């Protein structure tokens, strides 16, 4: 495997793919990794007014009364996919399995609740259908703005590793809520600690209102535990099944009682709702609180193994290799769970560049789309279709299927999703003008063409600057260009018969720019393009 | 370039040429497109009511005062044309199609179906129903996908489980095998058509490094051959039966045409959405139930005319029911247990199979479930499809003996 291939592999795994100029720069993989770490050092929150929803009508985030036993909110939530009939509360998660209550009657509802600053606000349940519709529209737009802004960063930000890590944690701490504010807050917390110390990340995420809501910790009361958060924090976030007992779940749930949030969306510990009794958790006894439980969890070697395995599967190979994972997990734990240190080690091993790990990762829908944009420098007039493709392909940001996140791997591929994936390049790049024509002096394919003939045409507002590709191709003669571009676009060697097909497609059009367009679309339409 | 022209010359179609020979041999061999125990093999049609159908206004306890107390304006009165059944229950007036199926002995109602610790989130509860998990488990495969994986007879190809939609539901995704989703056979065929397809491809080695590549090519090959098969088969029969003029009606018609054409599929999956009736429930249910009842009655009629009804079973479910008490907007909010309908030409037990939900014994205003939905899955898997329900569902759920 030559240096260029190694470099491309690193850019695909630690980010969203190489740009032509990255390959042309020709750094050694080691230098490139250092550069990636440097470029990802800064934390810049994702935020803009358009990502927030200021409800002119009333609060939608339920705020419990101060007592330890709030009345159960009977109203629950809606799929984001059918929001125009959505009921109240911020969460995409259910009301809890309620503590046993002798009374079957519904609690009387107050028409108003106190909002921030003591302003009474209407309850969502009391809104007219039109008001609800308006509200849902506002919520949807905010989510669209968050998603597209993040997709832009994946495609364009120099902080490639931070973006990729944030996507990993987005699936790891999978959470789905109705309100954009708490979702964005959780996102920025994972973004902030994405390369930091895992204990900080875990505590911060656990105290995010979105997570407390999603995993029902607001229904976890002294004397009436709700075990959802306690269970998932161990099963999915830290230890994995088999490394804790049902009794540990019960005790941990008691420790998390009192973890809640206020009307402004800030974490709030409610001492009167916290179970002060002694608890025995993973062999430790005391009046444990939530923070103690998280700390005890991270003392377990199983936590480092679990997390390292999950990272290995995401960044290296879907089939874990315990022999390679064990020393990494050990170092991870010894470093106080320093995520950046772990990633640097992982990307610095010889086996990371082993052919068995190259071109074997099935791109997730988000990786596929962000990768097309990044590697080709595509500019889009309208990003909404991309969200449509994400949905059709089964990965909508901020809408994981459940708390376990996206299963990934071959799960992405079925007959219909594969057909759509293979067509996306053609859909994107058919029958529209490229924003950039080949420059006369860069065009050594056929220098005497008119400008019109040098303009490549893809689609519907997707603009493809050809300069960088020209830089990559350098003096490569036209017949050899398909092969050169295949090395850039595909992470597995192109089959000779496929190369012949691509060459045929290129030859169908005598205009060099058109030939180049055909070459690109053909290469990206190969099944191999689904792999990185 | 015209779209059509593009598709014919597209690389996508051309790459099918290069599916490794060994896969072609598997895929295009004679006799593979045949169910092991066809003809007369049993099939299942799953109808998913998306959004959480209000079961209490579907199968109405119209002789129970508590029902009207909880729903002063939303409760449906006998005088509005409730279609009386048995045990003090009646269908919603718009479910005339269901009533006719019931009268012919083709319909069974299971009341109060749900699961422990019910979840009131649409997407999570649908996930639970589609995967067949408990509310405390997160599975990444669907119950029908695992049925495909289980190697039950006649589940060797994607077209052995078909979803009439553009994308495939989780329910139909197994680890090894997945169903096939498409809106109509012609469109699918056009995408994968290539006149060179029959040319023999060059052999390519298959070391583990290329396992993923082979997997993609194999999926593509299976898709292409399934598309071929469905396209050619589906030309056999065009339905003359009148279906509702709706998306759902059209999808049921497609389903019946595939079945009557002799397509050897074990599972069909069709969805009808819009049941999230927080407001104006009356109008919405009226429309949806007309669609649902008339559509399934037409399907039964269509299949009967072609001798395919006796080996067909339809399972109708929704991710949850609604709360017993109505809300302030003449609608209902998310609830728990709900009726499930089994419809088919060979039901052993028909009509109302168990007691009406107990409105005097609620859990915080919600129904308590009487039947675990996975018991129904187990019954369908084992007694109808002859599959190993225990391994597919991961646990041994109590089956309903002598039901199907």
From TrEMBL, chain A:
Compositionally skewed regions (Polar residues) per UniProt: 82-92
Lineage top rank: taxon: Bacteria
Region (Disordered): 82-131
Name listed for the protein in its UniProt record: DUF1800 domain-containing protein
TrEMBL record, chain B:
SUPFAM superfamilies according to UniProt: Alkaline phosphatase-like
Residues annotated as signal peptide: none
InterPro entries: Alkaline_phosphatase_core_sf, DUF1501
Name of the protein: Twin-arginine translocation pathway signal
